[in-house]
Amino acid sequence: MDLLTLHAQQGRVVQRYCLNNEEIEIRELEHYRWFHFGDDTIQAMMNTQSSTQVLMPICQAMLLFTLWKNNTLKILNLGMGGATFERFFDNQANIELTSVEQSTQVITMAKTYFSLPKQQYVHCQSAEQFLQQNTQPFDVVLCDLFTQKKNIVGINQPLFYKDIVKNLAKSGVVFINIDPKSEQNLLAILTMASKFFTDIAIIEFENYKNVVLVLSTVPIPSKQTLQQYNQHLNELKTTQETQQKAEQRTNTNHIDFTAYISSMHYLPSKNTQ
Questions:
Q1: CA-CA distances (angstroms) from residue 82 to 42, 47, 99, 109, 254?
Q2: pLDDT (0 to 100) of residue 3
Q3: Of 40, 56, 141, 151, which sees the most CB atoms within 10 A?
Q4: pLDDT for residue 47
């Protein structure tokens, strides 16, 4: 089944919720399950036969840091939603994942229908509240905060980026999924973020209007370096498939980042000025 052409309202309805006057609908087709806010945009998707697999291109792109950060990591996930990252990092000993989701209904949905790992604690509060109260630095911050097709208000506010920097380790990196209303809106967000981050890149998508912001206070690896890392992992995957065909977890979790690296655009680094 071609997931890129899958319509949000295909398949059978599994459950419906009402959240802040918005309908959340969970649907299923074959061995794929997803939810959406009553429109045509799939918010999260899971392979029920291989729940750790990351299916959505935007979520895959937000895992780009796994190419160059492979030590013990503290990761903050703002906007847990369908628990994609929680499943992906489950049982990875070098990862300490902190999850934040402000909706109790979404948390319940993730537990019931999207295989949220039982041991994963979820902070039930807004991203802004967590960032303002937290004192623990994170190596990676993942931010995917949407209500229907709208970014949360904080994305357009300087305080949001200031608070993220305060929660970020010195060599940390931030990935933010945004849906800019226009080129002017994207430029405004980039200008705002550049006041707090010296290094910025954006990842564009062929089939989505969304872009992923990559923000850091240290240099982001170049395209050439990322492609080298990616090629090495692809070769390693091929070797593993040949030698250990039974390792389904390893095989299904692999992500080829080639397309995402190719569609990256870097802003001039302030570290070199």
A1: 11, 12, 11, 8, 20
A2: 81
A3: 141
A4: 97
Tokens of 145: 């905060």
Average pLDDT over residues 192-219: 95
Our separate counts of H helices and E strands in the chain read 9, 14
- Delineate the domains of the chain, giving CATH numbers in brackets: 52-221+262-272 (3.40.50.150)
Structure tokens at 124: 């039930």
Q: How would residue 208 be classed by pLDDT, with cut points 50, 70 and 90? A: confident
- pLDDT score of 250: 45
In this structure, what is the dihedral angle of CA atoms 178, 180, 184, 190, given to the nearest 10 degrees?
A: 0
At 16, list the tokens: 């419906």
Query: Among 206, 178, 230, which Cα is nearest to 57's?
Result: 206
- Residue 173: what residue type? V
Please indicate, yes or no, whether the overall pTM of this predicted structure exceeds 0.70: yes
